[in-house]
Each structure stands twice: as C-alpha cells, then as structure tokens.
Amino acid sequence: TGNTAYEISSLSFGYDQSNITSTDVAEILTALCIDNHWSALGRIASRVGIGVVDLKSFFNNAAARRHIAAHQASADIETTDLINYGYGVVGLAMAFDLLISRALRIILDANREYLTQKKKISGNHISIRFLTYDGKKWWRETVDDKTRALKRDDDIIKIKADCIVRARLNGQAVVLKGDKGFPEEWFTPDID
C-alpha cells in the first residue's frame, strides 16, 4: 500500500480534467442547491472585503491567463495582474468554501426542504462574524454588516477561540481580517 497511486473518486466534481471551468463551478453549486451561484459567490466576496465586480469573468480571465502562462514561455503577465489575481482567488475560494460548508451543514441536519430542493441557499444565507485588527492593539468582533463591536480584545488567540464558539452556536462563519482589512483566515465552525 505504500506505493499505491491516489485517485480522485468519480463521484467527486471536476475529477475528469486538469482544470475546472466556470461551468464546473456552477454545476457544483447547482448540485448543492446554491441559488444564483456566481451572484452568491460575488455577494460573499464583496461582504468580506474583496471587491471583485464579477467573479465569473474574473475566474474565466484568470484561467485564460494561467493557461497562457503555463503553455507559452514568452507569456508576459503583469505584476499587478498577479497581485489582483491573488485577491480574487482568495475571495472566490472563501465564498465557495462558505457556501458549500453551509450546504454540508444543512445536509447533515437532514433539512427536508433543502434535500427535496424546495429551499435553496443564497449568498445572503451566510452569516459571518468578523475579527478585524485595528492596526494598533485591538481585535474587534462584529457580525455581518454591523460596525459596532460585540467584543474586543488584544489577545487574538483568546478572541478567536471565543468567537469560533459563538459562531458555532449561531451557525456562522468566521473571517479574520488583518490591519489592512484583507481577509487572512476563515473558519466554518458549524461543520468542524
């Protein structure tokens, strides 16, 4: 068994190709009853502070640039494109993870409306607790679009642990933002 090759199950999504497409992303989210998939991804990315206007176009453009860079030695990709690509990828990955994690939680809860596809998940169904550093001393905990801090602490380990407990109790995700306001970590405690 030490030399056994690993395979991705044919029951998984995107197993049959090297790179997934925006259509594959949409099919995955559709299978998990995510309503208006690309719009839901964009709403979440925007809420966490990643302002990519159209994530589907971003994904398609990034995939095309990556393909060119991978297959043309003379490809010239601008540094700013690479930096923006990093921001967009974080927003897309986070939004995707938060949506599919919410779907998993609902599946684990055996929600009949969801399992019979009478109820779908949208980007607005994802509640987020934010931990944001003020750049000086304090970490502030807020929920969704509220600006007033529910808690604040100078000890990130303590406030993060307490925030994750509160998020788990309320079915929320947790996004940690550094002093520049960019998401650095995220957690989905209701499935962990």
Question: What's the SSE blueprint?
Answer:
Layout: H1 22-31, H2 37-47, H3 55-71, H4 79-108, H5 112-115, E1 128-133, E2 139-143, E3 151-153, H6 156-170, E4 173-177, E5 183-187
Parallel strand pairs: 1-4
Antiparallel strand pairs: 1-2, 2-3, 4-5
Helix pairs in contact: 2-4, 3-4
Q: Please, could you describe this protein's structure?
A:
With 192 residues, this protein is α+β, with helices and mostly antiparallel strands. The protein is 45% helix and 12% strand. The mean pLDDT is 85.
Major pleated sheet: 5 strands, mixed
Q: Give the SSE string.
A: HHHHHEEEHEE
Low-confidence stretches: none
**Euclidean distance between termini CA atoms:** 29 Å
Keywords:
single chain, 192 residues, alpha+beta, five-stranded mixed β-sheet, 6 helices, 12% strand, flat
